[in-house]
Design goal:
The complex is a heterotrimer of chains A (330), B (350) and C (508). Helix content of chain A is 75%, strand content 2%. With 330 residues, chain A is an all-alpha fold. Chain A is built from 14 helices and 2 strands; from the N terminus they run ααααβαααααβααααα. Chain B has a domain of 244 residues. Among the domains of chain C are: 167 residues, Rossmann fold (3-Layer(aba) Sandwich), CATH 3.40.50; 176 residues, Rossmann fold (3-Layer(aba) Sandwich). Helix content of chain C is 33%, strand content 27%. Chain C has 18 helices and 24 strands. Chain C is globular and about 70 Å long. The chains are: A mainly alpha (330), B mainly alpha (350), C alpha/beta (508).
Amino acid sequence: MEVLGNLFNIALLVATIRTTTPILLVALGGSFTTKAGIFNIGLEGQMLIAAFFAVVGSIYTGSSLGGLLIGVSAALLFALIYAVLVVSFRANEVVVGLALNILAGGMTISLLKAIFGTRGSVVGRGIVGLPKVQIPGARDVMGSSAQLISGFTPLVYVAFLAVPLLILVYNRTQLGLYIRVVGEKPEAAEALGISIARIRYGASMLCGLFAGLAGAHMSLGYITMFTENMSSGRGFMAVAILIFSAGDPLKVLAGCLLFGFADAFSLRLQSFGFPSYLVLAVPYSVALVALFALSWRGRPKRLRETAETIRRALSVHPADAGRDAPASRS
Amino acid sequence: MRTLLATGWARTLAGQLFAIAIALALGSVIILLIDESPVRVFVTLMRGAFGDSEKIAGTLLQTTPILICGIAACIGLRGGMFNVGIEGQLFLGGFAAAWVGFAFSLPPVLHVLAAMALAVVAGAAWVAIPAFFRVRFGTNEVVSTILANYIATLLTSYFTIFLFKRPGGWSETPPILESAYLPELFSFSRLNLGLLIGLALAIVTAAFFRWTSAGYAVTMVGSAPKFAEYGGIDVRRVGFGVLLVSGAVGGLAGGVETLGVHHRFMEGFAPGFGFDGLIAALLANGSPVGTIFTALFFGALRAGSLLLEVDTTASREIITVIQALIILAVSADLIMRRRGDRTGERRWKF
Amino acid sequence: MDLAVDLSGITKRFGAFTANSGIDLAVRRGEIHAIIGENGAGKTTLMNILFGLLQPDEGTIAIGGKTMIVDSPAVAIGQGLGMVHQHFKLVPSLTVADNIFLGMEIRRNGLIDRAAQEERTRSLSEKFRLRVDPRERVAGLSVGMEQRIEILKVLARNARTIILDEPTAVLTPQESRDLFRTLRSFVDDGMTVIFISHHLEEVMAVSDTVTVLRDGRVVATKPKSALSKRELVRLMVGRDVSFDRRPRGQTNGKVALEVEDLWVRDDRQLAALKSVSLSVRAGEIVGIAGVAGNGQTELAEVLSGLRPASHGRARLHGQDILDLPPAAIRAGGLAHVPGDRMVRGVDRTASLSANMLIGRHRRAPFARAGVIDWSAVHGEMWTLIRRFDIRARGPEDPARSLSGGNIQKVVLAREFTAGGDVLLIDQPTRGVDIGAQEGIHDEIMRQRAEGRAILLISTQLDELKALADRILIMFDGRIMGAVDGAAMDEDAIGLMMAGVDPADMTEA
């Protein structure tokens, strides 16, 4: 039993890593736009169009890398359209994002019919999935826990390694710094001759790159198929995560792990015979509850005022703090 | 959304027509790419939408839910709220109406009223929590209502399939009693009273915004919330009310669809009407009367698309592509430019 | 003559409006050259042209004796020009050093070299005696400190000519004096300073040469020693303007507004008002003086119900108002002219009528049973347009089509006719040209004569001197003291604005 329980735990963790990957990739992409001050609700569509074209590309080129490249290019094209409208034409971000999502949905279904002559989904037909990376020696050293680090598709590693990479980008590179400045204080960027438009285009394209990887991972990763609307709201969950993480890579990771776990866990629940419809609603509910809970945390006045008062009382100027903090009305 | 008043409706109309033209041109390119003739597609669409009186009735049948959902969106937009959750409110309203329709036995008119009332309450209740968090803590309503859509769809499916499945049926509830049917307008079509309800709603909503104190307050909250607050308008209460009413109208759309068309609730019962309504409202620039026309346009596209799969090789979702292109073209236009200064710093409240 | 900057014949038009018309400006190396003029006289346009943010339609620019085309700030910076903008452009989440080197980061192996940036910040700070902590985050620093960082930013780019746009608007008199001392030391080191202001006193205090702009033209360039304050005003305005005290009758009305031990927090949850007490009588104008950002806005907001108080009492005609919503306070007789008129005061996209309607949109004669009578609304707006001399084509014009001064008149017209007998007026003439200011002052005096109780918040001492019966001075959320408007001692007010307690003044 002990062993079984242990295996169950590891299996659940492995499943969590797998389910976390696409949402982590797309959320990290969204981190660029969020930091650059763009509210990008179009992640869902970028992911979906990439998933579709990854399948098409993989069939056409006969290689998963080809599929990946073509899928990512499709997402980049969507990101470019988004940037042109939002940055250059100053269109409303929400309207453009939603319209691109709808466009992606309609286009993938239309093209599905035009290319494959089917509705619903495309399976087989020579789709080449992404290879699995076996880390040599992992099995010898870690035994059965090796599956925690070995045997994933390359994009899993890309997703998790991107977290420290993004931290480095935001803190130590010019591009990262400029993205933050453009989002936080665009007039500062403008005064220093940093082109706000160029940085926002850049952020949007980086976002498209990651959303494209996420899409490719969906259709060429663990399952090699494309289904209508297969992104099923992950892009929106990513936006929810971006809202309460403000695009901070570490917080994005934490949020994505939570959703990855909710996803993996709900799949497990399904096998225990819970009604599938309710189980499928779990990740969305988790996203919604997290969104509400964390915005609630942001506000309750009395609590925050008290905390602030205490913090100030403990900070540098004890004499001042006493003066600054009147007893709040009881 | 007040730009309509500020720029003049003629300018707006010209801008929207131009946008539609661009979108149709781009749509044609996409149709060519999938190896179909744009002319044939558009002709088929026209024939499917307006070919004979039955087809026209079919168009109006599709127009009805889009129009009512569009009004729901207009109400939100005027009050500065992006209710993207109309789809979910529509599903819950549709289910609620069906439940009253099959589970209770009431006299004819009363039955319809009771079913509609519960549909409205269900729609409002579904948006109440996102609305509360929006006005109290500033939680972005776009994301919360979108996520709520997924839950609403799954929840109504669960109700339908696990709790109220028609014995022997397939993912649908038992049919509603005839006493709960919305009266049909013509013998040859399922077109029903719902259309008139939608038209009346559009006119009442327009009058509300134009001539009432409450409508004025909503408009001010939508276009300049700080100014409204300063003027003594309770911005939070108005914002909450706007979303609640918007949700209620979304629920009503579901009720009309159930009682007027399907006479039962089934899985995937009215897909996309909520989004179509939102797009119709955006294309009409938040004007309820304008939404009558944009809803008719989208209703015609939908009705026409039924023929598309029969007569051409194109999929009917090509109309979704055209709708999305229209909104993209409209959004690029001056008319819909977001307010704010040159750097466009309307930061979203998270 | 050794000129740091030489502009000649600069003309700049925006559509039909000419912002700069044939402007000649010669700034000698090693002087502090003030450019003074009213709002809208063309000062900022001229500096933006010099700095490459705008292109002139006519005229030439020479920097350091070389005639050139300055088509971007980068060119100006390359020629040793530096600009400290009126609104600071610092990024709050970054450190002082990061901010200073933003746009010219020191990099090693492609990564930003934090240590080197901090080291250079430290050496700059020592060289120019502008003390900063390079590793501190900018968020939460004082305004004076932020300005210091802005100046260091310019110095780090090797500027030899520094342009400052309205640098003292947000500073206390004490901070201003420090700034002037710093500027003087720059000039002593052979640098040049161009100083833009509409503030007579400080121009007289700090500059060597003064150029006066009016309506986009240069009306005079003179050494400061050849100018008097009164002469400067005449040059700026084009005629003698009396900032003289308005004649008035006696006041002994009943107390209409009373505030006791009021504490309020600002948006960052810091104390913005600290134990403020005051009272205003009917037929009295009580002025609130102070540098912007010392709690005046919060005072206006809390009294009009837009901001919660954390402690204390405020009574309007004896009725407690602190827990009331804005609508109830309005109904109780308080009218509020907000300081931030573009955000709070009007809906710029809405018509004048819709702007006038706010607050009375449920009341007869404008609405009956919840239905608005638009013809009555337009009719009233026509009346106000005539009475307050608002320059608009009609009631259905959108507010944004009006000039700043006329928008302010719309706000004043609405609030003065709202039926309130207590008027809370925040910055009545900010951004309004001097001609229109007189009209606004006339109207305020008329309201006083009609027995209204008026609380007048202004950062302009001249305005308070002309209008107020009593002046209370605010600093850091406290009322530092009160002076009689008739016998006002500007030095004492200045010290109190800088936070000096009047009780300590005799010793100082």
